[in-house]
Amino acid sequence: MRKLLIITGAMMLFATGCGKGEEEPKKEQEVSAPSEQDKTEATYKEKFEKVEALRAEKKFAEAKKELQAIVTETKDNEKLKTYHQQAEEKLADITKEEGTRVEKKVEETKKPDPQKKKESVKSTKAEYIAKLDKIGKDLDKATEKLESDTNADMREAGDKKIAAWDKALNEIYGALKTQLPSNEMKVLQEEQRKWNKDKEDRTKKIASQPGTAYPVEARFISAELTQKRCYELVEKYMK
Questions:
Q1: pLDDT higher for 60 or 111?
Q2: CA geometry: angle at 52 spanning 49 and 56, to 5°?
Q3: Per-residue pLDDT, 5
Q4: Which terminus of the chain has fewer CB atoms gathered within 10 Å of its CB, N or C?
Q5: Are 174 and 189 in contact (CB under 8 A)?
Q6: How many beta carbons lie within 10 A of that of residue 31, not counting itself?
Q7: Are 157 and 148 in contact (CB under 8 A)?
């Protein structure tokens, strides 16, 4: 009987010891729901990230639209004051950045293209040469009959040629005034004064000779010299 009690007690002690060795299962930690403030912060963080992404892609109009929406929805709300100020600051920055970008584009478009300028010079010269060629052909055709008749007709033909070439020369000279820098224009003005004097001296000398044919000849020489001068100015100075 005594042995039975000893064995029973030992078994009870063993069972108690095993029970103490086992760990009780841990209770799962409860996760609290996010607060309203956390939700608000997350919402505006996402909105501002979207704005920055649009800004990086140079989509300024869309970025400003998003910011304007934030400014409107946070207006007069003390709790959202920080987001309101942040949106206004970003809106101002993007507007400034957009303006700078536009100004840069405008400046780039204003910069002269050397290749286009070169082509324009060639085109202008070619146009004036073609125009001068046409004037010459038209005058020859218009005065063909007059040159074969009386001195009066010849004088009329000469006067027509002088008028046409003087007009062409004045047009070319006027164009050069807008193209040439002031220092080159001064050189041309002095050169032109000398040319005018030489032409007048030469034609007067011819016209003063005895005989009715010389005044007529002086007219044709004057027209011829002016015609030649037109081509010289275009070739030498036209830009």
A1: 60
A2: 140
A3: 45
A4: N
A5: no
A6: 6
A7: no
